[in-house]
């Protein structure tokens, strides 16, 4: 089973409540506003700020 992209309609960044973008290659959800990348582990998004990876402007 793969990450269900239908979830993108209801998922939001836990920090700013904004839109998340799906990066299929890295299996991450990206918040460009906060510059955070949330991992998707075993098809489940880990939407915890403490677990998020900081990204640079080049990554976003």
Task: Describe this entry's structure for a reader.
With about 60 residues, the protein is mostly beta strands. The protein is about 0% helix and about 30% strand. It is built from no helices and five strands. Strands 1, 2, 3, 4 and 5 form a five-stranded antiparallel β-sheet that branches. A hairpin with a 2-residue loop joins β3 and β4.
Task: Itemize the secondary structure elements and their pairings.
Blueprint: E1 21-23, E2 28-31, E3 36-41, E4 44-45, E5 53-54
Antiparallel strand pairs: 1-2, 2-3, 3-4, 3-5
What would the keywords be for this entry?
5 strands; 60 residues; 5-stranded antiparallel β-sheet; mainly beta
Q: What is the β-strand count?
A: 5
Query: How far is the N terminus from the C terminus?
Result: 26 Å
Which structural class do the helices and strands define?
mainly beta
State the helicity in percent bands.
Answer: under 10%
